[in-house]
Design a protein that fits this description.
The complex is a heterodimer of chains A (533) and B (302).
Chain A lengths: L6 H11 L3 H23 L3 H12 L2 H7 L8 H28 L1 H5 L2 H6 L7 H27 L4 H28 L3 H25 L12 H7 L8 H22 L25 H29 L1 H10 L1 H10 L1 H37 L3 H5 L5 H35 L2 H13 L2 H17 L6 H19 L3 H6 L15 H24 L4
Chain B lengths: L2 E12 L2 E12 L3 E5 L6 H8 L7 E6 L8 H5 L2 E4 L11 H12 L4 H10 L13 H13 L5 E5 L7 H16 L3 E5 L3 H7 L2 E6 L2 E7 H6 L2 E8 L12 E7 L2 E7 L3 H11 L1 E7 L3 H10 L4 H5 L1
Parallel strand pairs in B: 3-7, 3-8, 5-6, 6-7
Antiparallel strand pairs in B: 1-2, 1-4, 8-9, 10-12, 10-13, 11-12
The chains are: A mainly alpha (533), B alpha/beta (302).
Chain lengths: 533, 302
Amino acid sequence: MNAFTGTGTLLRLALRRDRIMLPAWVYLLTASVASTAFSFKKLYSTGTSREQLAASLAGNSSLRALYGPLNDAASIGGITAWRMGVFGAALAGLMSILLVVRHTRAEEEDGRLELVRAGAVGHRAPLTAALATAALANLLLAVLVSTVLVVLGQAAAGSLAFGLSLAVCGLVFAGGAAVTAQLAETGRAANGSACAVLGLAYVLRAAGDSSSARDPGAVSRFSPIGWSEQVEPFAADRWWVLVLASAFAVLLAGVAYALVARRDLGAGLIPSRPGRTVGAPSLRTPLALAWRLQRGTLYGWSAGFAVGGAVFGGVAKGVLDLVRGNSGVADILRRMGGQQAVLDAYLSTVMGLLGMIAAGYAVQCVLRLRGEETGGRVEPVLATAVSRLRWAGGHLLFPLLGSGVILAVGGLTAGLAEGAAMGDLMGSVGRLLGGALVQLPAVWLAAAAATALFGLAPRWSSAAWGVLSVFLLIAWLGPVLQFGRRVLDFSPFTHIPRLPGGVFTVQPLLWLTLLAVGLTAAGLAGLRRRDLG
Amino acid sequence: MTTAISVSGLVKTFGRTRALDGLELTVAQGEVHGFLGPNGAGKSTTIRVLLGLLRADSGSARLLDGDPWHDAVALHRRLAYVPGDVTLWRNLSGGEAIDLLGRLRGGLDSARRAALLERFELDPTKKGRAYSKGNRQKVALVAALASDVELLVLDEPTSGLDPLMEEVFRECVAEERERGRTVLLSSHILSEVEALCDRVSIIRAGRTVETGTLNELRHLTRTAVDAELAAAPDGLSGLAGVHDLVVEGSRVRCQVDTDHLDALLRELTRIGVRSLTSRPPTLEELFLRHYQADTPAAEVAR
C-alpha cells in the first residue's frame, strides 16, 4: 500500500458524482465557442470586414481590456479566439476550482473524507482523484473545442492551440485550488480564495492588455489568463507557452501534495478565528439571524455587480467606436436612429442582463429557506417563540431588498464608468440607475415563483432554478429564434421597459409586482399549513 | 394533578407509512416522564406534533393548556426543546447560537448560562462546524437549560455525550425537577430513564403499549427465580404463571409472572429451600419484551 492506493476508485466516485455537472460545464463552454464562431462566420465573412474590426480595435483600449488583443484577423478562428479566449480561459479556471474544491476540502469539511480515508486509501489519493477529474474535464474541453473549430473549417493547428490554451488555464487553477484547499479550513473559503486569485488574474491581464496596442502587455505575463493569450492561437501558435503553463500547474500540484502530507485531516494551515463568546446584543430576532446567514452572499454579489457594471459601462464608448468603424454597420446605425440609439440599445441590453443575473441571486436567497429546513436548523428556531411567517419573512427581505441593492450597485458603477468616458456623469448615473432598478419586478417574480414552490411543494423547491432558466432562455433566445408572442409573454423579462432609450410604462411593472405578491402570499399560506422538516 | 401534555388517539401518516397510530400520552405537571420506544416507533414524530412542526391527521394533542399548532408561538415561550441530532449554523459560534435561541424564546438567565457552560465544559467560541456531535448536543442543552421555562422537551438529548457529561445532565434534570419543571425525556438509555423518570410510556409502531410508574410496569412482568432445593422438585411445570422452567437435579431456574410469585414460593418451601435468589425485572427486560415483539411473526414462529 502506498500513498496513492485507492485513487482509481475515488476517481470513479468523483466522475459518478459529477456526471451532470461536469458534462454541463464542458458543453456550455464548447457551445459558446461554437456559437460565437458560427455567428462570426456570418457577421465577418469577408477579409475586409475583419480588417476593419482589427483596425478599430487597435485604438480601443477598453475593448482590449475586456476581451484582450486581436492577434489574427485573417481567419474566423482568429477572431473567435480573440472574443472567447479570455472568457473561456477564465471559465475553464472557474470550472476547475469548483471541481477540485468539491472533491477535496468540501468532502473533508463534511466529514465524508474521514470515512473514505479510514479505508485502504492512501493520503494522496483523494487529492490525486480530484486533480485527475479536473484534468479530464479540461482535456475533454480542449478536444471538443478544437474539433468544433476544425469542423467549422478552421486551421487544425490553431484550433488545437486554442482548445489547449483554455484547458491549460483550467489546469493552472486546478493546481491553485488544490493549494487553497490545503490552506483554508472550509470549502467556501477555499473556493473564495481561489476565485479571488482568478479575479486578480483577469484584472491583471485587463490592465496589461489595455495599455499595449497589439501584444499582451508586460503585466499580463503575471496572469495565468494572460498566458493563454500569449499562446496566440491562429497567429503564432506558441506551443512552448502551453508547456510552461502546464509545468506551473504541476508545480502547484506539487506544493499541494507537500502541504497535504504536513497537516492533520480536517485542519487547515490557516486556522479559523474563534467566534464570539456571547452573541452580540443585536442577535435576537429572526431577521438578525437571516442577516447573519445571508450578508456574505449579499456582499459577494454586490462586489460582482460593482465590477460587472463598471466593465460593461466602461466599454460602452468602445462599442460605439466599433460600430462606427464598420461601414456596413454604419448603414444600420443610421436606420436605428443614430449614435445615441445604438448606445442605448447596448446599455439597455446590459441592464436586462444585470436583471436576469440578479434573479439568480434572488432565487438563491429564497432557496436558503429550504436549505435551513432540510439541514435541520429551522426546528430549534421554530421551537422558540418565532412564528413561521416571521422566520420566512426575515429571509425574504433579501430577495425583496437585496436584489434592489445589487442592481443599484451595478447601475451606479455602470453609470459612473460610462459617464466618465462620455462626459455626462450625472446624466449617465441617473439613466443607468433607472435602467437597473426597473428590472426589479421581474426579479421579484422569479423569487416569488421560488417562494410558492417552497411553500406549496417543498420537495420541488429546486425546480425554481428550472423556472428561472425558462424565463431567461425565453427572454434571451426568444427574439432571436422568433418565438410566438404568447411564449415570449411567459417570461417576466420581456415585459420590462428597455431603459435607457425605451418608453417607460408603469403598467407591466405593476402587473408583475402584483403577480409576485400573489405568488409569495400563496407560498407563505402553504408554509403556514404544511409539515416542516 | 394538572396535566402538562395530553395526547390521545394521535394519528399521523407520511404517504403510506403510518408513523403514529392512535398514540396516547399523558404527562403530569412537575413530573419527569420517560418516553421510550425502539427506533422508528414515532417518538420524534410525536414531539414534532407537540411542537407544532407537524400537523396531526386526527386525534387530539394539548400542551400546557394550549393547541400545539395554533398557539405555537405563545406556547414556545414556555418550553425549551433539545433535538436528538443538533445541527448548528456553521458561521455562528456556540455562544452566539445559545444566546440567539434563548433570546428568540424570550430571554435567558446569563448566570445560569455561565454556570452550565462551566459544568458541561463547553467552549462557546468555536464555530458551529467545528463542534463534535457531543459538543453540538451540549450547545442545545445549555440553551434549553439556561432558559426559565415550565416544560423541557428533550428528544434523546444525551446522544453523543460521554458518561461524565451524562452524569452532569442527570444532575441538571434532577435540579429542574426540584424547581418544579416538567420534563418529557425521550431516551434509549434505560439507566438514565430508571434514574430520572417518575413515570414512563413505552410506544411501539406508533401506539402506546404501556404507561405508568416503573413499579407498576414491573408488576406487569416476570420475576426471575433461581433456587437450590432440598430435593428434586416435581409438578412445578403445572403451576400457573411459571415460564422458561429449567430443572437440573435439585436446582430450579424459572421466570414467574409477578402476581403468581406467591404460589411458586409456597410450592418451593414445601419441598425445602437451601438457597434462593429472586430478581425483579430490569427495565431492559421490560423493554426487550416490547422490542422483540417487533420482529416479524414468521421469524418468531421459527
